[in-house]
Specification:
The structure holds 2 protein chains of 2 kinds.
Chain A: H1 5-24, H2 27-48, H3 54-72, H4 76-81, H5 96-105, H6 112-123, H7 128-135, H8 139-155, H9 165-187, H10 200-214, H11 219-232, H12 258-271, H13 279-292, H14 301-314, H15 318-332, H16 334-341, H17 349-361, H18 365-376, H19 382-394
Chain B: E1 2-9, H1 11-17, H2 29-48, E2 52-57, E3 65-68, E4 77-80, E5 89-97, H3 101-110, H4 118-122, E6 126-130
Antiparallel strand pairs in B: 1-5, 1-6, 2-5, 3-4
Classes of the chains: A mainly alpha, B alpha+beta.
């Protein structure tokens, strides 16, 4: 059973680009050369058959093309500006090239949209058109964004090697955040043009699997992969026909993807004892507790409250504090939740919605009604507004 | 994160730019040229940074055609140029894809430097509006 050509090329793209940049430098031109080599493969292989060593074939063609491009680029100024991204240590295994490339694409000098676009193109092996479709912007915007990102990387003086031990944690955190954002972009329920739209959530999972393969000992990478699988497992149950988001307690759990849940649980079970427990592992552990419950009523809320308590130590953002308060209410009653909620800044409509739910449970319909209406006035989602106003309507005149 | 930046003008503003004497100070050729150059450079900069999704300028409000249903079930009711001369309506927009609303605001603020006669600058403003986008909360409780 041969792998489909497109999947094979996507798999090989970062390895080939990494190998070419490691040997010859010129990240920006090399990226164009590799794109052309991939196109050549799409053109030639179906007709002449696949080469014995597809990776070597692509590296050879890309290197030849790079030489041509650099030769054609006779402008002295541009040559002076081209800082060759040479590796300081020559004998590092090829497998690391994809990882080095990923660190480069998630360089802190780039804006978030630039990091996402460049990662999808250079490491994900997507074409400019596919990246544009996935992020719902015109192709010209992505072309400019990527050109500019490459220039920024070049001007930052980055070299083609893994970050030093001193900056490793910070740099890896940026990489994981970019992967998380790609996943989130795909997870957003905005219906883009679905025609051949690259499934961003699936793409993020694929890239995170790659990072996990390259950094098998890193438990936060494991945690992120588990979090994605455990969250993605619920996606078929998340949206109603009218586009409204269905909250977890109302989802049809038979629609959840059991295989993804099993894999996610296995990963997080392996990760937790393996090293320092960071925010992705804790979020994955929380997602696992939800996914393990056969029904919403069977959810182990005390455990979820405890996990949010741990997550608060590393991430005390309003959204985490809000979820902690809700978990406390589910575990120990609405009064406990409301007491915690009072200390959380009302950063979004979700704060008012959570407060409304807890007030309703605590037997304060008038307060709950006001909070539902306050939440409805603060969300831009029409289905959600309808849901919140409908809840408020049930409580009117009590 | 995508935002739309909107700018507004009334038919009167369009007419003044078109050389009509409205009793207010007229646009000089130099002012018109400076405004045009500013807009070209502004759009160019946004395009090059990879933040620009799309930008358009809208033709004069007087060219608007409003279409409404006929409640008696007949043909749609069509009204040409439905606005009063001084009513401010959408004159142009930019859709940008940026890190967040602060960056979108920064971009909109650059429009404050658009060259124009003093009375036009005095009343100028732009709105920044998030595009509707149900971003899911990954952290579900």
């Amino acid at each position: 059973m041969t792998v489909p050509l497109e999947d094979l090329l996507r798999e090989l793209a970062p390895q080939v680009l990494g190998a070419v940049v490691r040997r010859y430098g010129h990240f920006d031109t090399a990226e164009d050369a590799v794109q052309e080599a991939l196109l050549a493969a799409v053109r030639d292989w179906p007709r002449r058959g696949r080469p014995d060593d597809p990776r070597a074939w692509l590296i050879t063609v890309a290197a030849r093309r790079l030489t041509d491009l650099l030769r054609a680029d006779s402008s002295r100024l541009r040559r002076e500006w081209t800082v060759a991204l040479r590796r300081d240590d020559a004998d590092v295994p090829d497998a690391d090239d994809s990882l080095v490339l990923l660190f480069l694409c998630c360089h802190p000098a780039l804006s978030v949209p630039a990091q996402l676009s460049l990662t999808l193109k250079a490491v994900g092996g997507l074409s400019t058109a596919e990246v544009a479709r996935a992020l719902l912007v015109p192709e010209a915007t992505i072309t400019r964004r990527i050109t500019r990102a490459k220039t920024a990387i070049r001007d930052s003086g980055a070299t083609f090697r893994l970050p030093s031990r001193a900056e490793w944690d910070d740099r890896l955190a940026v990489v994981l955040r970019v992967l998380y954002l790609i996943f989130n972009e795909g997870y957003a329920s905005t219906a883009g043009p679905s025609l051949q739209r690259v499934e961003l959530a699936a793409e993020a999972i694929r890239l995170t699997r790659l990072v996990h393969r390259l950094l098998p000992a890193d438990s936060e990478v494991l945690g992120l992969l588990a979090l994605m699988l455990l969250t993605h497992a619920r996606c078929a149950a998340r949206t109603a026909p009218d586009g409204a988001l269905i909250p977890m307690d109302a989802q049809d759990r038979t629609l959840w993807d059991a295989a993804a849940i099993d894999e996610g649980i296995a990963l997080i079970t392996a990760a937790l004892p393996a090293g320092p427990t960071g925010p992705y592992q804790l979020q994955a552990a929380i997602a696992a507790v939800h996914d393990e419950a056969p029904s919403a009523a069977d959810t182990d809320w005390p455990q979820i409250e405890a996990l949010y308590g741990l997550l608060l130590r590393v991430d005390a953002s309003p959204v985490v504090r809000l979820n902690h308060a809700v978990a406390a209410a589910m575990a120990r009653g609405p009064a406990a939740g409301l007491a915690l909620l009072d200390d959380v800044p009302p950063a979004s409509h979700r704060w008012y919605a959570a407060r409304a739910h807890l007030l309703e449970k605590a037997g304060d319909p008038a307060g709950a009604r006001d909070a539902y209406l306050a939440a409805a006035a603060r969300t831009s989602s029409v289905p959600e507004q309808r849901y919140l106003r409908e809840r408020a309507g049930r409580l009117s005149g009590e | 994160m995508k935002y739309m930046i909107l700018s507004y003008a009334a038919q009167l503003d369009y007419d003044e730019m078109g050389g009509r004497d409205t009793g207010r100070p007229a646009w000089t050729p130099e002012e018109m040229a400076a405004m045009g150059e500013f807009m070209v450079a502004f759009n160019q900069k946004l395009a090059e940074s990879g933040e620009l999704v799309e930008t358009r300028a809208l033709a004069a409000p007087v060219l608007t055609r409003r279409v409404a249903p006929d409640l008696a079930g007949g043909l749609p009711v069509v009204t040409d140029g439905p606005y009063a001369e001084t009513q401010e309506v959408l004159a142009g927009y930019w859709i940008v894809d940026v890190d967040g609303i602060d960056r979108a605001t920064e971009i909109a603020a650059m429009l404050n430097d658009t060259p124009a006669p003093a009375h036009v600058r005095a009343g100028a403003y732009a709105d920044v509006r998030p595009l509707m986008d149900e971003r899911a909360e990954l952290l579900e409780s």
